[in-house]
Each structure stands twice: as C-alpha cells, then as structure tokens.
Amino acid sequence: MVRIGQIKAGEFPVILAPMEDVTDSPFRSICKDFGADMLITEFVASEGLIRDAWKSRMKMQFEPKERPIGIQIFGANIDSMIQAAEAAEKADPDFIDLNFGCPVRKIVMKGGGAALLQDIPKMIAMAGAVVKSTKLPVTAKTRLGWDEKHLEIVDVAERLQDAGIQAISIHGRTRTQLYGGKADWTLIGEVKNNPRMHIPVFGNGDIDSGPKAKEMRDRYGVDGILIGRAAVGNPWIFTEVKTFLESGGVPAPPSVSERLKLLLSHLEKSLAYKGERATLFEMRKMYTGYFKGIAGFKPYRIKLVTAVSMQEVNSVLREIHYL
Q1: What does pTM read for this prediction?
Q2: What CATH superfamily is the domain 256-320?
C-alpha cells in the first residue's frame, strides 16, 4: 500500500494529473467514478489566495467523494506560498501539492511553476517553508530539469525529500520541451531507484493506455502514475488502465449512447459549478476525447466548439445520437 503521510493511496495509484481549465470538480468526480485513485485540483495562484480572489476560492472546492484530494498551489514568493498553504489547509484537503513544473510562459515569467528549476535552492527553501507551515502532508510535482543541459531531478528529488516533501510526481520532460517530443522516464526510474529515496515516486508523461502504464510500472519501478492529457474527454481511461494492470484485460470502449450520457452528465455538473459561459468555453477541449474513434464525428465537433449557447450544444448532441 502506497502511503502519503497517513493517506492510503492504493497499491499502485493511478492519479489524475492536475490541468488548468480541465481538472475542475465536475471532471474530477467523473474520473473518480471511473477509478482514479487520487485527485489534485487545478493549480491555484498563491497571490490569488492571499487576495481571497473568487476564482482561487472556487478552484479549491471539492466534493467528499473526491477524496483523497490535494490542492495544488504555485507562486514565486516564499512568504506568499506559506500564506497560500494556510488558506488551502482551511479548505480541508487531504494534502497540499506544490507546482514546480508548469511550463506555461505566463507562469514561468512570474517566477512560478517550472521557473523554480532555474533556482533550486529557492525551490527547496520554499518546499521546506510550506512543510513547516501546515499539518497536512505536502507533495511536489516537477520536471526533469529546465533543459537538456540541466537534468538535475535525481538530486532535486532527494533534496525535496529532505525538506519534508512526502511524495514527488515527475513529468518526464524538461521545461523547454513543454509538451513536445517524447517523455523520458529514464531519470524518473533513477529517482525511484536511488537508495536514499524513501518517499513515493510517481511518474507522468505519455501514459495513454493500459499497456503503456504496465510498461512504465514494470520497467522503472515507480510507485504510481499520473494520467494527464490522455484523460481529457476520456475519463474511462482509468478503468482501462486499472483493468489492464490487474488482469491484462482490455474493457470494451463505451458506446455512442454511453458517451452521450456521460457527456450530458458532465455538462450538467459544469453548468451548476461555473455557469454557461465558462462551460461552453472549457468543454471545447473535451469533445474530441468523448467521441474519439467514432466515425463521422468531425463535422459535429466543429459545431460543438463553435456553439454559443447550451441550446446549440444540446441540438448537436441530439444529432450525434444517430451516428
């Protein structure tokens, strides 16, 4: 059993990776229904929490069924991160996750996310300060390094552990790679096999099927995996991966009617959570996943992503019913 502090995460946890404008409470709860062992919120800006910004507070909301869940925070200022951790703790998550890996330019330019890979001493100091400021377990998510010349993750992981981090998730790319190219799990394996490491090590990057998950588990010995982009509009991937890991079987993909039913449920949850405007915008990235592999879907996708009202969306979905 993998443990993060007192949290029982599962024998080999399959975790939904945090993604901005994707892993909100409605989507997380659906992934939980399909077998995700642990969930993490979208990243929450430390400065937003300090200002008590509405969007930041909203990102920390979750349902009891989503446990165990972590609130992920990011920022460039250590004092602000301490205050953010204190605010996050009040929302009563199971753990706090530190984002040291987001490669997005607007985050990096402000000194947050993967920018800290260029200042490892500050990253370690920040982690230690947050650990001391909260009673909750603190975890961290990061990357192999800033670029190919600075692949420092083996040392960084050990130092984060020494600072009190209780689990580490590693994306197998550098910051400069963004999401391009192929994830390299070799160094993730080196972190896991470092005899000085005793906290759980989770791998992330390019897991899109049961066989791929098994390959990474068996080859690199990680304690668990995170699934990110492959879960977008495809929450049943958690059932697929866990079934394959447990029995080697591959469940049949959901039918068109099953996909429609699930999508309608997702839309309903999202409307209640954030309203029509945000739902219309953020669900656009979900449609391709929901109907991947369904012949004749492309023209309907164009209609869905250009719809300006839920009435239009529902009209298109009624047409898809006959595919």
Answers
A1: 0.94
A2: Putative flavin oxidoreducatase; domain 2 (1.10.1200.80)
